[in-house]
Amino acid sequence: MKQTIHLTYFLILSILLGSCTMSQKNRQYAEGVSELQGSYWMLLSLQGQELQDNPESNTAYLRFEEGSDELKGFTGCNRLMGRYSLSNDNLQLTNLGSTRAMCPIIEQENYLMAILQKVDAFKISGDVLTLFHKNTAVATFRAGAPPMSPDGL
């Protein structure tokens, strides 16, 4: 009888501790989502290579809209648009497109768009967002102020 009571207490304690752990994971996920959404993420690097400043272009950025699945941004030359979906640390970017003005950094823009299509996860550490493809960092961004782009975006 004593053994049954001890076993019951042990099971209840295990369930309570397990639910606390799940709550912590859910809280971390919610905090990551809230940090991701609504910020302007300024592009720092692609595939580990820092971007060169170009006086003929503006800083590329992404913005994950709050309350919707819309992705908006700027490639450094053209406006970027698409959709995103989140599940834990998984991130999928779909229906990506951009306006098609010609510019001197079109190769960098095409490279950025190709990388974004492959993204499958993200991590936020402080004010730095890292996007991943198959556990490899493919792009890094820093949270920043709303950028000044020529088209008023």
TrEMBL record:
Alphabetical list of Pfam families matching this protein: META
Annotated ranges, domain DUF306: 34-141
Signal peptide start and end residues: none
Highest taxon listed in the record's lineage: Bacteria
InterPro entries reported for this sequence: DUF306_Meta_HslJ, HslJ-like_sf, Hsp_HslJ-like
Record PANTHER family: HEAT SHOCK PROTEIN HSLJ
Protein name stated in the entry: META domain-containing protein
